[in-house]
Amino acid sequence: MLIKEIIQHIEEFAPLNYAEDFDNVGLLVGDAETEATGALITLDTLEEVVDEAIAKNCNLIISFHPIIFSGLKKLNGKNYVERTVIKAIQHNIAIYAIHTALDNQYKGVNDMIAKKLNLANRKILIPRKNSIKKLTTFVPNKNAEELRFALFEAGAGSIGNYDNCSFNVSGSGSFKPNDDANPAVGQKGKIHFEEETQIGITFPAHLQSKILQTLFKNHPYEEVAYEVTTLENQHQHLGMGMIGELEKEISEEEFLKSVKEIFNAGIVRHSELLGKTIKKVAVLGGSGSFAIENAKHAGADVYVTADLKYHDFYKAEKQLILADIGHYESEQFTKDLLYSFLSKKIRNFAFILADTNTNPIKYI
Questions:
Q1: Among the four 47, 122, 179, 227, which has the fewest Cβ within 10 Å?
Q2: Burial of 163 (0-12, 13-18, 19+ CB in 10 A)
Q3: Which residues on neighbouring strands pair with residue 138, listed in sequence order?
Q4: Which SS3 state, helix, strand or coil, does residue 243 take?
Q5: Which UniProt keywords apply (predicted)?
Q6: What is the CA radius of gyration of the chain?
Q7: Alpha carbon distance 34, 66 (integer Å)
Q8: Its pTM surpasses 0.85
Q9: Contacts for 289-294: CB closer than 8 Å, 24+ residues apart
Q10: Burial label, 45 (beta-carbon count in 10 A; 0-12, 13-18, 19+)
Q11: How far is the C-alpha of 120 from the C-alpha of 175, rounded, in Å?
C-alpha cells in the first residue's frame, strides 16, 4: 500500500478543505508515492515519536498537530522542529498532519470530548459559513433522473440528517445549434425546443470539482448550462466546537470533579462557581478562548476548553462557568479516534498508537 492511499482515506473522513486558513495540514514531509511499511498515530510529532516510528518499522507518522506550522527558513537542527524534521527525512519517514480539518469534522475532536462526557443532543457550536454550494442545471426530462442520482452518488443533495435532496422544475428550453455544433438533440441551424428539468441541488464546497466532473460526465448536452452559487446557510455538521446536554442536572462541583477524572487533568482551572446546576455543556478541544461568546449565546451552563488566559476568565460574566482542562488533556483521545477509523477502513495494514506521551506540561 502506498502512503497516498492511506492519505486518501484520511481525507475522505476529514478533507483538507475543512481546515482553517491559518493551519498547515496534509503531507508535511515525505513522498506520497512511497510504499508504507506501517503508520504510527500520535497527537504531536517530536524527535521521540520519530524514534518510536523507527523502532516499530513505521515510515509514516499520522499526527494531529503539524510539526511545521509556520515557514522554515533553515534546517540546521537548532530547535526541536528542525531536529524532528531532519531525523524524519534521514530515516525516510513521512509526516502527515490533520489538525483543524479534524477539529471541524462533525465526528471529530469535539465529538470525542462530548462522548467522553456522555452528552446527548449534540450540535456544532460554531457551524461553518460559506461551506454549502448550490448547483443549478437544465437537462432533458428523459435524462433528469439519471443525472440527479449520479449527483447524489457524488455527494450532492445532503442537508443535515437528510440526503437525496433536490428541487426540480419542468419547463421548455430553446437553442439553435450553429454549423460547428454537435447537438445531442435538434438540428444545426434550426431553433429547437426541448422539455427540460431544472435541477437545483446543494453540496459541500470541498466537493465542487467532483460534482462538476459528474455533471459533465452524465449530462447529454455538448454545452452544459449550469451555475454554482454559495449559500448563506451554515453547515450544521461542519464547524468548531460542540454543545450537548447531560442526562441529568448535576452540581457544578460534581461536574468539574468528573471532568478532571475523565480527562486525567492535572488541574482544572475554572471561573467563579455560580451556585447553579449543570445541564448544557459546550466543548472545544485545544485553544478555545475565541468561542466563549458562542458558548454563552448557545446557553451553555459550562464551557470546557483549554489555554484560557487570565483575562479570558472575566468573560464568563456570571453567565456560565469556564473550565480549562489543558490543551493536551482536551485532545488526547484524538489519536484513538484516528486509530479506530483507519483500522476499520484498512484492516490488513499495521496502524500503531504511539506510546510516547507528548504533553509538554507537567504538574506537581
A1: 179
A2: exposed
A3: 198
A4: strand
A5: Metal-binding
A6: 25
A7: 20
A8: yes
A9: 289/315, 291/125, 291/126, 291/240, 291/241, 292/316, 292/322, 294/125, 294/126, 294/241
A10: buried
A11: 55
* Cell numbers that stand for 80 in this block: 526541536
- Give mean pLDDT, residues 46-52: 98
Contact 36, 59 (CB under 8 A): yes
C-alpha cell at 297: 449565546
Rounded Cα distance, 159 and 355, in Å: 40
Residue that the C-alpha cell 435532496 belongs to: 165
pLDDT reported for residue 234: 86
Q: Which is nearest to 252 in space by CA: 276, 284, 270?
A: 276
Q: Taking a C-beta distance cutoff of 8 angstroms, is the pair 303, 291 a contact?
A: yes
Query: Considering only CA atoms, which of 308, 316, 313, 269 is closest in space to residue 289?
Result: 308
- Average pLDDT over the chain reads 96
Domains of the chain: 3-101+333-353 (3.40.1390.30), 109-127+239-325 (3.40.1390.30), 132-233 (3.30.70.120)
